[in-house]
Specification:
Elements: H1 3-16, H2 20-34, H3 46-61, H4 71-83, H5 90-106, H6 112-134
Helix pairs in contact: 1-6, 2-3, 2-5, 4-6, 5-6
């Protein structure tokens, strides 16, 4: 990612999380609209899951300048997602729901450049998680 893309992601996310609960709720509403079968993967209350999602995205967004600090955590998350029955094809649905949520939250501030920045960030994260989920080495406990 370029420095400009990192700044776009950070600035746009800071704006979206002003309404964090709404953003999380919108994300899961869209995700389950795209694939209703995914709802069964989430056993917790969606409000709690939404809070976790927003916290996780906030953490990663503010580490984009230092991805090496979080890459082990991202890999571990990918391995955990395999245990949750998340499949490779689910990552594209998550991307669609995330971009839709961002567009809805940002309104007129959403543009092609910001979308591309988020696609770049998501690609790094999802590719890392997918690769980790396909790794046959046992997880370190």
């Amino acid at each position: 990612m370029t420095q400009k893309q990192i700044e776009l992601v950070e600035n746009s996310w800071d704006y979206v999380i002003i309404n964090a609960l709404e953003a999380g709720t919108n994300f899961y509403t869209k995700l389950f609209e795209l694939d209703p079968a995914l709802r069964q993967l989430f056993r917790e209350d969606i409000r709690l899951q939404s809070q976790k999602l927003v916290s996780l995205i906030t953490f990663v967004v503010h580490k984009l300048n230092n991805m090496n600090d979080v890459i082990a955590d991202v890999k571990a998350l990918g391995k955990r997602h395999k245990n949750y029955r998340v499949k490779k094809e689910h990552y594209s649905l998550v991307e669609q729901a995330l971009l839709w949520t961002l567009e809805k939250g940002l309104g007129d501030q959403w543009n092609h450049e910001t979308e591309n920045a988020w696609r770049a960030a998501y690609s790094i994260l999802s590719d890392t998680m997918i690769k980790a989920s396909q790794d046959t080495e046992p997880a370190v406990i």
